[in-house]
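Give me structure tokens for this 147-residue protein.
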Amino acid sequence: MALVACNTTKVGFDYETRVARFVLESENQGSIVALPISGARIQVNPKAILTEYDIAAVDVAELELGACLQFTLSHRASRDFYQKSATNLGKRLVLLVNGKAIGLQRLERPIGNGVIYIFVEIPDSELPELAKNLRGTSIELQNKING
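Here you go.
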């Protein structure tokens, strides 16, 4: 069923496990994912190009088009993602949370600053809680690996 855990000992706040992974649109192979509200169907490579271990921070950002999630990548992941974004211009980057597609961003330019903005198909009122849960999960998993 749903993977839910609360933890206050390592990250300093309560959160529910929400694992973020980013996959790229694929032209000839992969699986089909669908966004929950628009129903947009996208064929994606099942291998994630960014995982919960690459995420340094998750926040809510207000842009001209509205509220979205802002993912800040680790320094290493930022360098790697710059190259991947440059070689995959025009493709869509899809955010999966606990394996379900909830948002996407078209790669219109190489992303060199390590910050990804993703508009997600959930109510704006739920964005702060989702950001907190994604942040807590990433911090906790990274802490387990780093000791």
